[in-house]
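== Folding the chain ==

***
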Amino acid sequence: MSFFKKFFSKEKEQDLNKGLEKTKESFFTQITKAVAGKSTIDIDFLDDLENILISSDVGLETTVKIIDRLEKKVSEDKYLNTSELNSILKKVITDILAENNTMDTDDFDVPSSQSPYIIMVVGVNGVGKTTTIGKLANQYVKKGHRVVLGAGDTFRAAAVDQLKIWSERSKSHFYSKGMNTDPAAVAYETVQYAENANLDVAIIDTAGRLHTKTQLMEELTKIKRSMDKKLPGAPHEVILVLDATTGQNAIEQAKHFTAATNVTAIALTKLDGSAKGGVVLGISDQFKIPIKYIGVGEGMEQLQVFNRKAFVDSLFS
């Protein structure tokens, strides 16, 4: 059994296929119409393909890259049918994802060399940040890890209560200082709690407000510094949560947060609610940051480790 098949179960494959239904329907319906009646890749077709990719929120820079590579691959043989075009596009997209630090595994785990493993989660309100934290905690607990959730979003009404509910659902520990307290202090004390309780993982929420770039930088830097003070090297991972349904706005958010802090991974939520799954390609290509998690449904188990092979296979199935 291959490494990929070992970890990517039939159930997860079905969840991914269902989660990408809207994107596939939009993307391939348009491509089929563009190919109809054509036997060569000509300027008109390339213009159509460019519009299709951009409307799927792949982004202009990544779209240009795909078009250029497509032209190069068919420069010698201009014959075209739908099957051949899909095969070429699949190869081009797979190559772009492979170049940009995406993964080929579907396992939830943390490095055994670092305990507790500290994760800071950032992102604007409404992207599914708290839900993602809860689902991630659930997956870690299922793997046998002991987890604490730190309520560092101390400004948004009910944020602390929501995280507490997710800690109960995922059977995780919970640490909070309540509303309107210093988030840096919450982060510091959550790390301390994880150390004292001999836990494996601490996942720390942060406020989801987009301040000015300077304010955002200062707050996130302060939170990170407080964790590093308690445990040198923490946080070991900074996950940026983005909402796939917002398309290009997700890319704008990524620009803000990557400028403000050292984002090490991206979680892309609500793919099942979007026809613009092409944003996966744009984000991966523009920021060279691994897309580590994708949300393909509301269920506790429907947060997946992003696997480029599974994603591309599903997209073109």
User: Anything to note?
Assistant: DSSP finds 13 helices and eight strands in the chain. The first helix runs from residue 3 to 7. The first strand starts at residue 117 and ends at 122. The CA atoms of residues 187 and 227 lie 6 Å apart.
